[in-house]
Every structure is written in structure tokens, then in C-alpha cells.
Amino acid sequence: MPLTRAQVQHIAELAKLKLTEEEIERMTPQLSAILDHAARLQELDTEAIPPTASVAPLQNVMRDDQVAPSMPREDALANAPDKDERGEFFRVRAILKDEG
Amino acid sequence: MIMELYALTVHEARARLEKGEISSVDLTRAVLDRIDAVDARVNAYLTVVAERALGQARQADARWAAHRRDKSTAPALLGIPMAIKDEICTRGVRTTAGSKILGKFVPPYDATVMEKLNAAGAILIGKTNQDEFAMGSSTENSRYFVTHNPWDLDRVPGGSSGGSAAAVAADETLFALGTDTGGSVRQPAGLTNIVGLRPTYGRVSRFGVIAFASSLDQVGSLTKDVRDAATILGVIAGYDAREATSVNRPVPDYVGALDGQSHPAEERGTSGLPLQGVCVGVPREYFIEGMQPGVDAVVRAAIRQLESLGATTQEVSLPHTDYSLPTYYLIAPAEASANLARYDGVKYGYRLEESDEMWEVMRATRGDGFGAEVKRRIMLGTYALSAGYYDAYYLKAQKVRTLIKQDFDQAFAQVEDPEHTSGVDVIVAPTSPSVAFKIGEKVNDPLQMYLADVFTLAQALAGIPAISIPCGFVDGLPVGLQLMGRAFDEERVLRVAYAYEQATDWRTRKPAL
User: Fold this and answer.
1) List B24, B137, B160, B221, catalytic entry
2) Tell me, what's the ipTM?
3) Residue B7 burial by CB count (10 A; 0-12/13-18/19+): exposed, middle or buried?
4) Does the beta carbon of B213 lie under 8 angstroms from any beta carbon of chain A?
5) What are A2-25's pLDDT values in tens digits?
6) Right CATH number for A5-42 from 3.90.76.10, 1.10.20.60, 3.90.980.10, 3.90.660.10?
7) pTM above threshold 0.90
8) Which residues of A touch B383 (CB under 8 A)?
9) Distance (Å, rounded) from C-alpha B199 to C-alpha B187?
């Protein structure tokens, strides 16, 4: 089943990707072709097969909660495109709008 | 013939450093000069840190002098130059993952594998080009430039670790690290006549390795021979409390395993043949129509060579092989879509300020910061995980993954019943269905590009170790032989690879540059 242009736009919104008209145009048939290929998996009866999320021979990995030094704030902020003057916080555009 | 220093293997260089015949500064200079001479044509490196490397080399020489004086053993890689894929965080050295969105990113910490290599004394020469976020099979998806195959500059070196493979093949480093999510170490190694090892999932820590698909990603080595692959694995393997999928089990002596001395006596036999007692499985699903005929012939000749070295061969079936491509291309993009959500224009350097609105800044930053293939996979993964499609795509793929893993479990099964055919020790197959393709040949057809990985996906899905080693040429272009083993049985994989390598001279052939 081919994807529609509207579906591609919806997925782009979920993924927070700004796509140009041309990109949507190109990607729609490409994604459809890949999903078509993936539909081959439906040939297999997997009713009784458990899913594999990880192949590591591990169960839950627990450790003691120990206090230890972590990355200095200066290092953590070093790559930030924008931070506050005192170098304490990442700075982003306003998340909430002033409705007043 | 006087061998140029840059052409040495790690173990050859170490032997000369040990005797004081060469210095690390000589070696490092030779590699940097080689980069100056050929990298304008190969384009393997995104970043070269020449001054830093020479500084480290001078320190290594001082340490070597002390070791020679008091006759103590130096760390495994003291004074040896290395190249690192730009997917792996290097403290203080820009790490882009081949992406524009990380174009200014300078990691504040080292990946665990870097800590281990640094502790072993290796010298960072630079960071190598790759497909963006390791998504690709040709290195054409780099946001910076295309890397060329040293064997034919009009062809791709494979990918995604194409820069690392090209750097090793062109003698622009002594060894390199790459990452392998669905073949990204083995496929470029095969296309450039070098050795590429993907270890078992859990064997090597991924802490500090930029995540693509976390249930598949693994760090691997690209080296000039099998002995070097064993040496590097010995350095980078081991438990890491900072990595939740890292497995806590001892690291064996991989170099000691090469000649079989650490294997049980009954396997070594009395014939003097290095592979006596080893059963090699030949999976019929890997010798298919559509494979380049010359590649098929070269790989079959290599299998006969394994027999002449004492191995027995047995046909095996891995019936779900054909489903590994669709399985991989649902699971990997799904995990990627989650892993790449962190690039929101806040923490890692790049932000496109097109608007005053936060969501719009994020959309614009991601739309521009990611390239076409990365966006395609984020879209695919987001769709496969979205409400209403999760069961049909992602969950279905995880179930088929179980079937693919069971194929290998059955082939490798050790059955005690003498009436029953017991499982094989290793499985042999081509690394890729064809030799290196032309630059530009597959860029407009994603599905055709994905098919370049068709023989390297199932091992990643099953989490087993696999190596690609040189096994011949078709029309002057290299062919890789892939050997796979049981989980955590790198020793046997390396041993078989080493026996084949020592009986052949493919590795001694070098591209004319």
C-alpha cells in the first residue's frame, strides 16, 4: 500500500523534520518502495515466535546508587549554540506563549 | 626491498620499535607524509591532528626508551598511529558522525574504546570520513565529501566506515576503528582488500560511540592483517559499567588463539594441517543468483583452500537469510529515529534560527542538519513505530529477528548424539555480492544501495562475530571472504581467518596510488 503525501507530511511532523516540497515529492515513492519490500515479512507465520529486542545475554542490569563526580557544567555546556550569561543553563526559544 | 614505514602492520612496527630500529616519531611522520601524498585523491580523513600526533609520538619514544632500558614490556600499541571513525567520540577533537548537525561538536569526553586505546599507547592521527550517522554502504552519504576506493578512484570504498577502510588500504594509518551496525566494518574491508572484524554484540563497549541503532551497533577494527585484528580486539574488548549491554566476561588471549595453541588438543590433530578438526559451514542462501559470477568463483576457491588446510566443509541452511534485509531496514531505522531525537538544536552545536518559535527552530535545525538518507531513515523508523503500524512493522521485524538468530543457533549447535549431525564451528560466505561499485551508481535508488549489505545484516541481527578477510580479485578489484562464529567465539573465527591468510598472499597486494 503506497504512502500518501499527507501521511508523509504527518510523519515529518511526528519526527520534527522540516521537509521541502521537493523532498516530500521524492521521499513519498521511496518510502513506499521500502515498505513494500518490508511487507515480505508478512509471508512468515510468527504467531508463536517471541520478539527479540536485544541479543545480549543479559537481564536487568542493576548497580548501587553511588555519588561520584559527573561531567563539569562548563564541559556539558561547551557545545551549546546558546547559553545564559553566567554559563549555567542551555538557552532555547520560548516554549510557552504569553497568552495575556 | 626497503619497506616504507607507513606500510607496516601493527605487529611489524611494534617489533621494530621494541628493538629501537625506528622511532614513533619516524613512524608518525611517515604516516602524515603519506596522507599529504595521497589523501587529496582518496579523501579518507575528515580531520588530521598532525601536531598533536607528533607530540604524542615524542612522548611514546621517551616511554619506549625507558622500557628498553629496564627491559619491561611496553603497552600493546605504544607509539602506533591509528585512525578513528568520526562516529566515535574523541575528547577535544571534533567528532561529526559525518553530519552537519554535529559539524561543530567537540566531545568533552572520550569513548571507552578511546580510553583503552590511549592507555595502550596508540597515537591518534585523525578522524575518518563516513556515511552520515553510519547510514550507508558507500560513504557517499557523508555531508562533507566522498571517499574514493584506493583500488579504483572512480569507485566507492564501501561504507559506512569507508574512510577508515580507505585509510588502512592506502597505508594512511597502521590501523583504524570503525563501527558496524549492518556491515559497516566488514563490507568496506572486503571492498578494499583489508581485514574488518565485527565482534560479538556486548564484547566491546559502545559508551561514547554516537548511537545509530542500539540493538545492533558494535565497534570493530580495520587492519592490514588478522594478527592486528586480534591485537586490537584484545585492547578494546571488555566489560564497561557505563554501558548497559556490555557483557562481563573475561577477555581471552586473541593473539595466542591464532595458531590454535589455546584450543583443545583434540582439535589440533596430528596431521600438521592448521585447520584439522574444524568444521566450516557453507550456507546455500549466500550463494545466490544475482551475485557477481567472478565473486562467486573467488569465494568458492577460498573454501577449497580452507579444505586443503584441513577443514571439513558441510552445507548448512540459514533459511531466513532472505528476510534479513526487510527486518534490518525496519529495526535499524526505528531505533535510529529514537536515537536521533536528541539532535534538537540545544546541546550539540548546530542550530538554525529561522524563527522565534521553539518547535519551528527544532524542525528547521533537523531539516537542514540531517542529510537525505538520515531523514529517510528517521521517517521510515517513525512510521514503523507509530500508532497503528507498530505491530505490523516493528514487532513483526523483532519476531523475524528471532527466526534469523535461531537459524545460526541451529547451524552452530553442538549436538552430543553421535547419530545426529553436529553443528559447524564457523560459517563461511562472501562479504558482499559484488566488488566495489562506481561512485554515483546507486545514490538515487535507496533499495539498490541497501542490497549492497545483503550478506552482512543477518550476523548483526543475530549478534554474532564475523570477519572479512581478503580472498582474491575480480577485474583488479578486491573480494572479501566472510567468516562467522558463535557469540563470544572470536578466537575460532580469528584462528580460521589466520590460517587462510597465512596460506595466501592477497594481503600483500597494494593499490597503486
Assistant:
1) B160
2) 0.94
3) middle
4) no
5) 899 999 999 999 999 999 999 999
6) 1.10.20.60
7) yes
8) 3, 7, 11, 31, 35
9) 14
